[in-house]
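Feature request, filed as a ticket because there's no other form

It would be nice if the structure record came with a short human-readable summary line next to the tokens. Right now we just get the raw output. Example of a typical job, pasted below so the devs can see what we mean:
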Amino acid sequence: MKKTFIVFSLTALLASCSSPKISLSDAMNLLKGNWALQSIAGQSGLGTLFADKLPALQFDTEGMKVSGNNGCNNIRGPLSLEAGNKISFGQLAGTKMACPGQGEGIFMDALNKVTNFKVDNGVMKLLAGEQEVMSFAKGSQ
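Raw output as currently delivered:
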């Protein structure tokens, strides 16, 4: 029993370390460019939330800015990156078009929860701690 517990504990510890932390310059290179929303809060059927247009983000890592669309309005603002896969978004400005549905609000609330990220095989996951908030697919630059 004691041996099983130790093996389980070591497995859990190794699994928590499996997502490597990257340097700031590597993070800047990974995020640079356009990203299209794939899922939000575990929901991949996005047509009901975003009827007209799917959200997308564009990272300008040299200027430390983010821009894009939240499903209705264009957004832009400051971006903060730190070594260890840490990311945050400053106060974002946006256009003020009237938007049907709740997708825009859900997207903006989710974006405000993000603390870190990981990128694997062209998919970026924005996380709140260890929990996935949104995922994006890399688009053309």
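Something like this underneath would help us a lot:
The beta strands are 33-40, 56-60, 65-69, 74-82, 86-89, 93-94, 116-120, 123-128, 131-138.
The chain has a mean pLDDT of 85.
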